[in-house]
Each structure stands twice: as structure tokens, then as C-alpha cells.
Amino acid sequence: MENNNENTEITAETPATSEENSSILRDIVEIAESTLVTVFVIVMIFTYILHPVNIVGHSMVPTLNKYYDPQLENTDKIFMTTVYTNVKYGDILVIDKDVNYLLDDNGEPYVPNAQEASPIDECIIKRVIAVGGQIVDIHDGKVYVNGELLKEPYINEPDSTGDYGYGAFSEQYPIKVPQGYYFVMGDNRNHSTDSRSRSVGLVKKDQIYGKAIVRYSPIKDFDILTDSWKGPEA
Q1: Residues paired with 131 in a beta bridge
Q2: Do 36 and 83 fall within a single domain?
Q3: Which helix (H) or strand (E) holds 128?
Q4: 77-81 and 208-217 as β-strands: parallel, antiparallel, unpaired?
Q5: Are residues 44 and 89 both part of a single domain?
Q6: Which among 223, 204, 220, 200 is positioned nearest to 212, based on CA atoms?
Q7: Is residue 20 part of a domain?
């Protein structure tokens, strides 16, 4: 009888132990699934939505790299997105400037030959000043779009320069930006190679890598860049 009682007690405990093991297994599976989903979402975000970019140079000072020192390599770091609906005035773009586009006498875009102007052929970051269909004029150190003087609280100097005398459109201003193209400039106007230069010219839509959305490093200078054109007091 004692043996039977012992057997009965052992048999009674077995289902509870099995349930505990199943519960632990379910917990492990749920944790694994949650971890995989989280990793998948993060990978998708950084593959298709957010891309880290190191900013090199002074062309976007003071908005970016205000304290940049090439010897210290203390660059600002931003996230750009490749997912956006449109490009508008004030957007900061990361651009693959492998080809430069100028305008012929009829206002049509063309690619100049190497003797006329060679492309800068590198990745640049600039601010959109005008989009397709708008008219750009630069004179007396000022920038006008559709006849209106731009209020530019983001630039480094009180006035912007012209386009260096023999620039991309020196003898053509005012110019109408063709559809599918953009006129871009750096915020550090006296130290920026941008649409005013023959080596850059207009930016074609398919040359845009992405739109800058946030500066995440240095962390003390964390900033949302999508409305940086409004200026600090906007």
C-alpha cells in the first residue's frame, strides 16, 4: 500500500511539472519572436528609412558643423531619410553630384563637356532654394525667388554672395528652374560650392540621396532639421 501511495503521489505531480515546462517554453518562444520582430523593424528602418551621414566641411555652417575642425574630425552626424513625399524650399538634401546641369540659351538643362565645366563628382549637402518652375535671381548679394527677397535667418553671413563672377548662371539671371530640377545653396554662402558654381549647377531629382531630418551627434546639439529654414526665432 505504501508503494502504491508513493506511485500515486508521483503521478499526481507529473502534469503540473509538464505545464510548467510548457509555460517556460512558451515564454522563451514569445521572447524570441519579440526580439526577432524588433531586430527586423530596426533593420528595415535603418535600411529603407533612416541613414546615418557624417557631415564634412564648412559649407552648411552655422546649421551644421558649426564647431567643425578637420584635424579633430569632430563632424556633426545626422540621419537622412530616403522616404519623403516632396522636396520644397528649405529642405536640406544629401546629393550625389556626379553630373552638373547648366542651362542653354533657351533655358533648357544640359550637361556641359569637360572643357566647359567638370562636375564636382562627390556627395554634397545643401539647402533647397528653389524648385522646378520657380525663378531665381541673385544680385547685390541678395537672393530672390519669384521676385521676392528671401528671408534667410539660417545663413552664416548677413548677405549672400553672387556666383563668383564666372558662375553657372552669371550671364543668365534671372533663371527659371526646370521641372524636376532644384537650385541649392550652402548656408555658409561665402564658402560653399553649390548651384552658383559651374561644377555643381542644378540638381536633378534622381541625384538626391535623401532629406536630412535630425542631427543626433553631438548629443548636446541634437536638433530637428526639417524646419531649420525658419531660423531660431521662428
Answers
A1: 182
A2: no
A3: strand 122-131
A4: antiparallel
A5: no
A6: 223
A7: yes
pLDDT at residue number 40: 62
Which has more confidence, 163 or 1?
163
C-alpha 149, offset from chain centre: 26
Please, which residues bridge with residue 143 across strands?
A: 138
59 and 24 part of one domain: no
Which CATH number characterizes residue 83's domain? 2.10.109.10
What is the count of structural domains for the chain? 2
Phi/psi for 99 (5° steps) reads -135, 140
Same domain, 99 and 186: yes
Confidence of residue 44 (pLDDT cuts 50, 70, 90): low
User: Side chain identity at 224, as an amino acid letter?
Assistant: I
Domain span at residue 212 reads 55-228
**Grid cell locating 141:** 548679394
* Model confidence, pTM: 0.79
pLDDT tens readout for residues 150-189: 999 999 876 655 655 558 898 899 999 999 999 999 999 8
Q: Is the alpha carbon torsion for 122, 205, 177, 109 positive or negative?
A: positive
Nearest to 188 by CA among 166, 219, 156: 156
Report in angstroms the alpha-carbon separations of 181 from 99, 165, 169.
13, 23, 15
Cell numbers representing residue 117 in the block: 565645366
User: Please, is 182 exposed, middle or buried when counting C-beta atoms within 10 Å of its C-beta (0-12, 13-18, 19+)?
Assistant: buried
Amino acid (1-letter code) at residue 163: D
My answer on whether omega of the bond before 218 falls inside 30° of 0, hence cis, is yes
Distance in angstroms (rounded) separating the CA atoms of residues 76 and 66: 8
Identity of the amino acid at 20: E
